[in-house]
Amino acid sequence: KLHSREATRFVNSQVNGITRLGIGPDPRWLEYYENRTPVAFPVDTPESTGESGDHAVALSEQDVQEDAGGAWNPSLNLLGDFHSEEQFKFANPSTYGHVKDRDHVAGFVSHGFSKLPVLKHPQNDWIKVQGKSKSVESHPAAWKIVRLELVSLLKFDEPAVYVSDHLPQMSELADAKTRPLTPFEEQALESLQAGEYLVAAADTNHIRMLGSLRASKQCLECHAGRRGTLLGAFSYRLRRDPPLSVTTSGKKPAT
What we know:
This protein is α+β, with helices and mostly antiparallel strands. Helices cover about 15% and strands about 25% of the residues. It has a seven-stranded antiparallel beta sheet with strand order 1-11-12-13-8-9-10. The protein has a two-stranded antiparallel ribbon with strand order 2-3. The termini are far apart.
């Protein structure tokens, strides 16, 4: 696979002579074949939705909402882009290896994550807070991944969610326990089956969302079905860290 990539790049190069070689094969590409270390979730705390006075928040379709103190809510478009990036990392086509047919595959790397996802503010890695630049990681009330779980739609009679202390790794989930869908996941799944790409619900300090995993052309080399078939979903839970306090009137206090 590595040789095939380099040969194609060499043939398609627009320069002449030895410069056609460019920088040569990048051995970092082979890191895909190293054994992944399971990535554990951060220490979890129970959701406060409906328990500590958090109030439902309507997420904007396109605009990231910020307050004077720098706390921000992502837009639905930003969450959609985030989900697209994570499903690409989970099943990167570079890890598919060489597929002659479904019974003859060489160099395949099982789908999985190698690091904890980070929901970044759209202003790259740095944003302005009261006139000063701060990194997203140190930004007040940044959004952190609490859970990212794989929803299986094909293996069982009913949709089920794989339960693990780590980010989804297909090699680890073969014998993993499962749980039934939550009410939110059930309703969101109906929307995905009707053609939606992602469904999200938010309150002051939490975001729940379900993002579709549909069959691409490359998927069909090993998976049965048609392009666009809903193969599964990612169920996300994000928490604002540190959380914002909520007054009894339902308004956020000034920061």
